[in-house]
């Protein structure tokens, strides 16, 4: 099975736009980011940062590859179709979705890890601006 | 500007790592707060009818005793217990997550939990975090295949053995175990040996102290006993160190009255029986 589709989604660096001033009117946030330097923006700040960002994707890749080897091409293909279908069921753009069906398909509904305990996205302190995001989604913006 | 590529993700957040490294390198006199380690002696062995686990009860923060009576033997399943050494918080959270996952696993497979399952789940989690989770654990339990004892290190390596000790006091504890361990001991012999091993760790190692906790796991279940023995008791003072009044001669006495003004006086009556 062609796992290159998943591979193209792997993140091998932290996007630069997050880390420095991104618009003509935005200040580089020294309080939160510290002084800007090229090294800081290109290299991850912690050895685990990249591997954790890509962890779920790598798990999926491994599982699909094993499934392909054991059960043939159709099994992972069908599962990937179900993944795509289930990812489309979301709430409004600024709200966090629970992704329950996706968890069930991945088998994460029967285990508890640090992603369930720490840094719960529904408790996040930052949220997108609701009106702007909905207008953008509807194409009114 | 819409950050469509950025979504809040659960799990560990690395937001402050850059800032922290920057602070450490640029501020020379900065003392970074250290995680509290358990500074432990934990030991376990397999005997005739099951497994015995033992631990001390001292938790240290650098060179200060943070907790004189902490619990280092954690519950994973009714027939599986786990001793934790290393960073106290990491050991505690890891064992709690393991216990929850084992319960879910047992419910979904409808089978009693096995020690090998616990060990494998633990190893996979620790390897994922490449040793940054500083938890060394001894897992012991009795399942359908018999009594088992595993020791797992922070990077994810493990050993399946008949007796082991871990923590900062593992040197003295392992020497006692190596000297006196025999396969298929009775409960009394086994418990006595575990207590001796942990006591050796408590007496020789500065990071271990207070009491010895013991957990015995057999076919009938687990029995957890706190403070089975207290090897190090504070000794009584040998002499009196109080000096009588007048021991030091007074050479000169000067009295300087402070000019104080009474500004306000309030009287509050107290209920006295």
From TrEMBL, chain A:
It comes from the Eukaryota. GO terms for cellular component: cytoplasm; nuclear speck; nucleus. InterPro entries: Ump1. Keywords: Chaperone. Belongs to the POMP/UMP1 family. PANTHER family: PROTEASOME MATURATION PROTEIN (PTHR12828:SF3), PROTEASOME MATURATION PROTEIN UMP1 (PTHR12828). This is Proteasome maturation protein. It comes from Monodelphis domestica (Gray short-tailed opossum).
TrEMBL record, chain B:
GO terms for cellular component: cytosol; nucleus; proteasome core complex, beta-subunit complex; spermatoproteasome complex. It catalyses: Cleavage of peptide bonds with very broad specificity. One of its GO terms (molecular function) is threonine-type endopeptidase activity. It holds the Pfam family Proteasome. Component of the proteasome, a multicatalytic proteinase complex which is characterized by its ability to cleave peptides with Arg, Phe, Tyr, Leu, and Glu adjacent to the leaving group at neutral or slightly basic pH. The proteasome has an ATP-dependent proteolytic activity. Belongs to the peptidase T1B family. Keywords: Cytoplasm, Hydrolase, Nucleus, Protease, Proteasome, Threonine protease. This is Proteasome subunit beta. Residues 236-267 form the Proteasome beta subunit C-terminal domain. The gene is PSMB10. The active site is at residue 40. GO terms for biological process: cell morphogenesis; proteasome-mediated ubiquitin-dependent protein catabolic process; T cell proliferation. Component of the proteasome complex. Its main location: cytoplasm. It is found in: Cytoplasm; Nucleus. InterPro entries: Ntn_hydrolases_N, Pept_T1A_subB, Proteasome_bsu_C, Proteasome_bsu_CS, Proteasome_sua/b, Proteasome_suB-type.
């Amino acid at each position: 099975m062609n796992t290159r589709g998943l591979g193209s989604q792997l993140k091998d660096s932290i996007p630069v736009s997050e880390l420095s001033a991104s618009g003509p009117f935005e200040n580089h946030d020294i309080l939160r980011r510290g002084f800007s330097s090229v090294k800081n923006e290109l290299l991850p700040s912690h050895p685990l940062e990249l591997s954790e960002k890509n962890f779920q994707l790598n798990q999926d890749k491994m599982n699909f590859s094993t499934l392909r080897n054991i059960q043939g091409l159709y099994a992972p293909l069908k599962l990937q179709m179900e993944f795509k279908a289930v990812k489309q069921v979301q709430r409004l753009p600024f709200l966090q979705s629970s992704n329950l069906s996706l968890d069930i398909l991945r088998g994460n509904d029967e285990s508890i890890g640090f992603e369930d305990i720490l840094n719960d996205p529904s408790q996040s302190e930052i949220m997108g601006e609701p009106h702007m995001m909905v207008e953008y989604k509807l194409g009114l913006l | 500007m819409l950050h469509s590529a950025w979504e809040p993700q659960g799990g560990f957040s690395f937001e402050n790592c850059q800032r922290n490294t920057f602070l450490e390198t640029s501020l020379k006199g900065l003392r970074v707060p250290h995680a509290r380690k358990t500074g432990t002696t934990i030991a376990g062995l397999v005997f005739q009818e099951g497994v015995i686990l033992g631990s001390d009860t001292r938790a240290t923060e650098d060179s200060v005793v943070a907790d004189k009576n902490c619990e280092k033997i954690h519950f994973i399943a009714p027939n599986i217990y786990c001793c934790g050494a290393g960073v106290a918080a990491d050991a505690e959270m890891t064992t709690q997550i393991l216990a929850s996952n084992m319960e879910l696993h047992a419910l979904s497979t409808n089978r009693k939990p096995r020690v090998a399952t616990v060990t494998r789940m633990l190893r996979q989690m620790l390897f994922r975090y490449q040793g940054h989770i500083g938890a060394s654990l001894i897992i012991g339990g009795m399942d359908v295949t018999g009594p088992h004892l595993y020791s797992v290190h922070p990077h994810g390596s493990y050993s399946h053995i008949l007796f082991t000790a871990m923590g900062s006091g593992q040197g003295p504890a392992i020497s006692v175990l190596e000297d006196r361990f025999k396969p298929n001991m009775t409960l009394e012999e086994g418990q006595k040996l575990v207590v001796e091993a942990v006591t050796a760790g408590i007496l020789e190692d500065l990071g271990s102290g207070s009491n010895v906790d013991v957990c015995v796991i057999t076919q009938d279940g687990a029995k957890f006993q706190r403070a089975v023995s207290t090897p190090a008791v504070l000794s009584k003072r040998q002499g009196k160190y109080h000096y009588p009044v007048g021991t030091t001669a007074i050479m000169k006495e000067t009295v300087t009255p402070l000019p104080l003004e009474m500004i306000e006086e309030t009287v509050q009556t107290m209920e006295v029986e």
